[in-house]
Amino acid sequence: MKAFLYNGTICSYFKEQISDASIVSWTRAFFWSEMHFYQCVTYKSYNPYYTTQSILVVIAILSSIAIPKFLFVLCRFLLAPLAVWIFLAYKYWKTIIIIDAVEKFLRIQQMIGPMRYAYTDIVAVTSHFRDKLGQGGYGSVYKGVLLPGDVHVAVKMLEGNSNCNGEDFISEVSTIGRIHHVNVVRLVGFCSEEMRRAIVYEYMPHGSLDKYIFSPEKSFSWDKLNEIALGIARGINYLHQGCDMQIMHFDIKPHNILLDSNFVPKVADFGLAKLYPRGETVLCL
Length: 285
What we know:
By secondary structure, this protein is α+β, with helices and mostly antiparallel strands. The protein has two domains: 1-98, no CATH class; 112-277, Transferase(Phosphotransferase), domain 1 (Orthogonal Bundle). Helix content is 49%, strand content 18%. The chain has helices at 2-7, 9-19, 23-33, 37-42, 48-109, 119-125, 165-176, 210-213, 222-241, and strands spanning 115-117, 132-136, 139-146, 151-158, 187-193, 196-202, 245-248, 257-259, 265-267, 274-277. The strands form three sheets. Strands 1-5-6-4-3-2 form a six-stranded mixed β-sheet. It has a two-stranded antiparallel sheet with strand order 7-10. It has a two-stranded antiparallel sheet with strand order 8-9. Helix 2 (9-19) packs antiparallel against helix 3 (23-33), helix 3 packs across helix 5 (48-109) and helix 5 (48-109) packs parallel to helix 7 (165-176). Residues 127-285 form the Protein kinase domain. Keywords: ATP-binding, Glycoprotein, Kinase, Membrane, Nucleotide-binding, Serine/threonine-protein kinase, Signal, Transferase, Transmembrane, Transmembrane helix. It catalyses: L-threonyl-[protein] + ATP = O-phospho-L-threonyl-[protein] + ADP + H(+); L-seryl-[protein] + ATP = O-phospho-L-seryl-[protein] + ADP + H(+). It comes from Aegilops tauschii subsp. strangulata (Goatgrass).
């Protein structure tokens, strides 16, 4: 049997195949000779050419198995952590840019703007955010009490996954901070510490207008609806004509009209508002 293997067709077939430059032929020869691979390539002459070729075949086969495993390990233990690190660094960089923009704006506003509160003050005013009034895409609104005087306020926390809450915060403080009108909600103060931001408004005990016009149990008379509509129109007209800069709200809807204790309507939520010079025509498509 050994003589046949060393001198017969298997050995001859193996040597024919490895004489070909193709890796496919080398691989075929390797598996054809099976357990007598080494004896075939070293029989009689112990030709180093065949020995070298056989070693190359082994290396090629092992490489075809090892390279995918190596790439898998490389991706798992090197590239994946690197990708996570790059993502976190990008998020941190964006956060720093937003914080810098807000702080620069607040330094400009601090001489003319409303009162600035620390975050600990906001926690105390809301009694650790105990009384929640509502929830929206911008965050949550909580009822609070300012001391001394027991002044009731509404505290809107800008939170969630919004990457634009820095811009929303600047828009709201810069617009509503300069407004004093009976039909526009009054800004009491604000808070900005790193990414924690809050806006403090006067409290509107009757909530938003949509609770009444869309509810059969809480409907108004036509006279009252007309009075509310006129109040909203006066507030919008003041935004457009009564300020040094035109203020375009861009989000007038029943949900953003608040009612005080006497059902006087007040325009609220200036997150989308923009300032324009007086006399400039603004076209909204």
